[in-house]
Design a protein that fits this description.
Length: 319
């Protein structure tokens, strides 16, 4: 065979081996470059129309002015400024997400409402320098996932561990990718939040069940049949036959009394039902008492919120 042809065949063979990954084991493929961080959508601070439920009027104000009243309504104004700032990021995110997905509060014809049952708590009278500083230091900051504002869920205390949305809220849609069960430093919460016991008359429990379409004539037993990732009661079985949603029963009974579904025990007596547990709230998203502790430990607002929401970015939407 011609010498030149032999050399070409040898070179082709070496090239083929390289292409199929048979090159020298010492040579590692280069790590692909990390994608550039997504740029925030720059815009002007919006004016929003707020339904003032105390007076029934509709008031237009700057977004940041509105948020100061929300933070003052949702968190104690003497808390560490970094915790208040984390709440400001959550409140701003909650507001923008609601505006973008459903137009705010369409039944009122406004972007927001001061009625906590409709939107968020609001207390302009409690706004102090601490609140103003917290809002200003996070001005325009929003939590986003894939460029869109997330659902800014929060609660008073996680009892040490947060819940998934399906577990804590009986969320009917797909679990948001940014919600995971994480450890939460809630040890600064008051004693009656860290561990609590509540007694309901059987009649109250039966009335709550009836509101849920689960009518029973008596209660002989209640057992937890399903728990979520954090250990919260997701499903209960009453009288060994009636299945009841844990989060829905909590709301039907009174969520300020049955503080959490992170339960340690349920006892059925002759006339009463006793629940014992820890934490306060649905447990999804940011724990306010956890944020308090993290702020006292020197964490920045961005560190606090990204602890509770995974894979999110803090974007600055306006200056």
């Amino acid at each position: 065979m011609n010498r030149k042809i032999i050399v070409c065949l040898v070179l082709l063979g070496v090239l083929s081996l390289t292409l199929i990954g048979c090159s020298s084991p010492q040579k590692k493929p280069e790590t692909p470059p990390m994608p550039a961080p997504q740029q925030a959508t720059q815009q002007q601070e919006p004016d929003i129309t707020v339904f003032m439920h105390e007076t029934g009027e509709k008031k237009t104000m700057k977004m940041e002015e509105y948020l100061a009243g929300v933070v003052a309504g949702e968190m104690k104004n003497d808390w560490p400024v970094e915790a208040l700032a984390a709440q400001a990021i959550i409140a701003r995110t909650f507001t923008l997400e609601a505006m973008e997905t459903k137009g705010g509060v369409p039944e009122r014809g406004t972007q927001a409402s001061t009625d906590i049952k409709e939107f968020q708590a609001y207390n302009a009278k409690a706004v102090n320098d601490n609140i103003k500083k917290a809002v200003q230091m996070t001005r325009g900051m929003v939590l986003t996932y894939q460029g869109k504002p997330i659902k800014g869920w929060f609660h008073a205390s996680a009892g040490g561990i947060t819940a998934t949305a399906k577990e804590g809220l009986n969320y009917r849609e797909a679990e948001p990718p940014y919600i995971e069960s994480v450890q939460s430093p809630d040890e600064l919460a008051p004693a009656d939040i860290k561990n609590w016991t509540i007694v309901f008359p059987k009649e109250a429990v039966m009335a709550a069940m009836a509101k849920m379409g689960k009518k029973v004539n008596d209660i002989s037993s209640i057992e937890i049949t399903q728990k979520g990732p954090s250990g919260r009661a997701v499903m209960l079985r009453v009288n060994r036959e009636v299945e009841v949603s844990g989060p829905e029963l909590r709301v039907a009974l009174d969520s300020t009394k049955l503080k959490s579904m992170l339960l340690d025990k349920i006892e059925v007596g002759e006339e009463n039902v006793t629940f014992a547990g820890k934490g306060y709230g649905h447990g999804v998203g940011m724990s306010q008492w956890g944020a308090n502790r993290m702020a006292k430990d020197g964490k920045k607002p961005e560190e606090i919120v990204t602890h509770y929401f995974k894979g999110v970015k803090v974007e600055k939407r306006w200056d």
